[in-house]
Design a protein that fits this description.
With about 240 residues, the chain is of the alpha/beta class. It has 9 helices and 9 strands. The chain is elongated. The two termini are about 45 Å apart. The site of 6-chloroguanine has 15 residues, from strand 5 and strand 7. It catalyses: guanosine(37) in tRNA + S-adenosyl-L-methionine = N(1)-methylguanosine(37) in tRNA + S-adenosyl-L-homocysteine + H(+).
Length: about 240
């Protein structure tokens, strides 16, 4: 998978060199490049923003550097899926992560200030699939942290990136629910015990216990998820809870 990230703060994306994402890049599974938007400015101040049309607080990213950036990074017939970060975007979810993991080429445009001139989005949308995306209902200074989150969620779904594919299997098994709590040794720690069922060796019982915990946790922390659950994914024993 090819990923391009365009930002005015390339250093903010340094964590993409680390850990599992860094290893996926080393393994050649991921061709990830971070670009400084100021490369496509021509004035001495490398300015990327201007006052909002119509007035108001803050600054808006001007279209010229973005236009030239797209011209250079997307020169041919092949088109990326363009993701423009914005608190006004579509909510990023695990379902969208799966959708994006199937794309051969993703390009992220990190919005800063009060956002990017909307004509950049409209212009790009005539040439490629464009999605404005948000990672939640709160406001960040810019899209860089959102891109870190999205790239991590997407790339771990790319075949070969995650060492143990079984952990992905476990997740889809629990689709739409929060995970059951996890424990490791020792069996007792500071007066707190590992639930005995997890030490019983009975895999059927363990699965059933985890399923119940997942349902209880979801009911307590995220009742909205339970309401959106496909009723077909609940069995008779789930319904008795
Ligand atoms: Cl994608 N960008 C900004 N600036 N703030 C956000 C966001 C994105 N998602 C949630 N808040």
């Amino acid at each position: 998978m090819k990923i391009d990230v365009v930002t005015v703060f390339p250093e903010y994306l340094a964590p993409l060199d680390l850990s599992l994402i860094g290893r996926a890049r080393d393994k050649g599974l991921l061709d990830l490049n971070v670009h400084d938007l100021r490369r496509w400015t021509h004035d001495v101040h490398h300015s990327v923003d201007g006052a909002p049309a119509g007035g108001g607080a803050g600054m808006v990213m001007k279209p010229q550097p973005w236009g030239e950036c797209l011209d250079e990074l997307v020169p041919g017939e092949e088109r990326p899926r363009l993701l423009v970060t914005s608190p006004a975007g579509r909510p990023f979810t695990q379902a969208m992560a799966h959708e994006l993991a199937a794309e051969p080429w993703l390009m992220f445009a990190c919005g800063r200030y009060e956002g990017i001139d909307q004509r950049v989005v409209d212009y790009a949308a005539d040439r490629m699939e464009v999605t404005e995306v948000s990672i939640g209902d709160y406001v960040l200074f810019g899209g860089e942290v959102a891109v870190l989150a999205i790239v991590e969620a997407v790339t771990r779904l790319v075949p070969g990136v995650l060492g143990n594919a079984a952990s992905l299997d476990d997740e889809s098994h629990n689709a739409g629910l929060l995970e059951a709590p996890a424990y490791t040794r020792p069996a007792e720690w500071r007066g707190h015990e590992v639930p005995p069922v997890l030490l019983s060796g009975d895999h059927g019982k363990v699965d059933r216990w985890r399923r119940e915990q997942a349902l209880l946790r979801t009911a307590r922390a995220r009742p909205d998820l339970l309401e959106r659950l496909d009723p077909g994914s609940l069995d008779e024993r789930d319904r008795l809870l």
